[in-house]
Amino acid sequence: MSGKFIVIEGLEGAGKSTACHEIITLLYQYGIKNVIYTREPGGTPIAEQLRTLIQQKEMLKEEITDYAELLMLYAARIQLVDNIIKPALERGSWVVGDRHDLSSQAYQGGGRKIKPDFINHLKEELLGDFSPDLTLYLDITPEISLQRTQKRGALDRIEIESLGFFTRTRNRYLALALKDKRIQIIDATQQQNKVTSQLHKKINQWLQESYKF
Ligand code: T5A
């Protein structure tokens, strides 16, 4: 595959959507103009329906179990990876993803306390050695996350989880990021312009070191 896959991760309100747009603009300045944006869960008709199912609070008269949630997230992911991301990379396009597999490791593994071995098994079976070329994890505290999402209005099924859930999710993100050098951490508690300048610095460095841009 000749295109590259860059992923942005973080808690709700970390600034992922904003960061994805910044990255696309920056890549454009490097002359990389064939870039597509994806989000997870979502990005294909079936994956978008799964997203609605996962996020809706009141639709069903039935609780979504933690394992059902995990499997729906992987169903959405594999639809997106096989039908959109891999074909795009094979065409030579670059892909900027708003969340990917690390979200499941952090939210379902950390937040929901599903055994990491089980999640890793699913990951290996479904994705094999497919993984992002670079992941930027925007680190914020659960308290800041809550403040930013509350400003936006009504919270969805996952956003109403407890502070403990988001603390475990953040801790798992940090633990995984610290042991994988393809995951870089950005302090996203800073003002927006400082976060953007950190983001530019990391992408510039990565492009220069890895691809001699
Ligand atoms: N999920 C997903 C799982 O549990 N497991 C999985 O495997 C996957 C893939 C997806 C949900 O699904 C869960 C996690 C989520 O609950 P999502 O669409 O990714 O949801 O939605 P959110 O993470 O909720 O996206 P948000 O839009 O809330 O967050 P963003 O994109 O990180 O933040 P952004 O850029 O929209 O900014 C949010 C607000 O914060 C402000 C912005 O102006 C905006 O108002 N903001 C800042 N304010 C001050 N200083 C800064 N530095 C700021 N950065 C942003």
From TrEMBL:
Superkingdom of source: Bacteria
Reaction it catalyzes: dTMP + ATP = dTDP + ADP
Provenance organism: Candidatus Erwinia haradaeae
Key word Kinase present: yes
Name assigned to this protein: Thymidylate kinase
BP terms from Gene Ontology: dTDP biosynthetic process; dTTP biosynthetic process; dUDP biosynthetic process
Family indicated by similarity: Belongs to the thymidylate kinase family.
Pfam families named among the record's database cross-references: Thymidylate_kin
Lineage: Bacteria, Pseudomonadati, Pseudomonadota, Gammaproteobacteria, Enterobacterales
PROSITE patterns: THYMIDYLATE_KINASE
A GO molecular function held by the record: dTMP kinase activity
